[in-house]
Target: ABC transporter ATP-binding protein
Amino acid sequence: MARISLQGLGHSYLAAPKEDADWALKRLDLEWQDGGAYALLGPSGCGKTTLLNIISGLLRPSEGRILFDDADVTALPPDRRHIAQVFQFPVVYDTMTVYDNLAFPLRNRGVAPAEIDARVREIAEMIHLTDRLKKRAAGLTADGKQKISLGRGLVRTDVNAILFDEPLTVIDPHLKWQLRSNLKELHQRVRLTMIYVTHDQTEALTFADQVVVMNAGEVVQVGTPVELFERPTHTFVGHFIGSPGMNLLPGELRDGRAHFAGRPIATAHDAGAGAADGPVEIGIRPEFVSLGEQGDGDAIPATVTKVDDAGRFRIVELRLDDANAPAIKLLAPEEQPVAAGPARLRFDPAHTLLYRDGWLLEP
Ligand SMILES: Nc1ncnc2c1ncn2[C@@H]1O[C@H](COP(=O)(O)OP(=O)(O)OP(=O)(O)O)[C@@H](O)[C@H]1O
Model:
């Protein structure tokens, strides 16, 4: 096992990259702690697979270094990095039994038969395949096969990390949840470094202790699920995480105070302090916007234009008088009646954040 450090990493698939857009990965410094459960989350094309393939050695980066602990492995081929990779589609030998599939990586490395047997049984128990060990892999369903792929990664005792590249893509929706909690439990038992690539925020937030959010070849934030929710350091994270995502509203800093819809508003941590006056974006999650009483002079006048039922709560959409202002969303509890028409908005100051050029303004 090892701590994995990426230093000044950059990658372009072009021979002579000229502009920013030519880089699949822009300059990136990142450290993955030994034994951590990480998710790498971002939209399609943001560079997740490129980064994973650089860690496993399938791809040599155009720039920068990869260290496992203090050893520079940038030039090492995949088989000398001891990384297990689980892909979108299960990689199993259909004609072999489940047992032989799991034993394969160990036999390949000349491990003694008694040790192989003990290890295969231990892993089979962890992934709930003990009663299938004698069956041919061909007879298993997609999730059973994906469990074998996972088991083949776990069975080796020499791996530095296991990388999962969208491993639940081919799994039936109702089994996804089961396999995901299985993975989380496995991580707690084996404490191997696991990096789980996905574009699905639910998968990322339920699996990982730390989530690395990427956009357009850049890491925009590394944080716990709670940090990403409560304090997105970039508007991309605010918008991408959450359902619906963060409201991002045009505002202004005047004499160091945030203004919205022509009135001063309170923000978290005196967010505007030290920043130059001028336009800002006000970020507030729908969870922290509420409806004030009619006649509440401090609240912002608006009009409810849409109410959608979303199970335990309602998604309420409002508009300000200013036709150019974007719609604002809030979550109302199921039991709270919400009528279309005039309303008043309240923002929770502790969760009202300010952004400039996409980045959070910090005091
Ligand atoms: N072999 C390749 N040759 C040229 N360009 C590539 C190659 N592989 C990826 N790219 C480009 O690099 C960028 C990053 O792609 P990458 O596959 O790493 O993203 P991703 O986040 O994994 O996306 P997805 O979730 O769709 O797999 C994209 O613009 C993609 O088109």
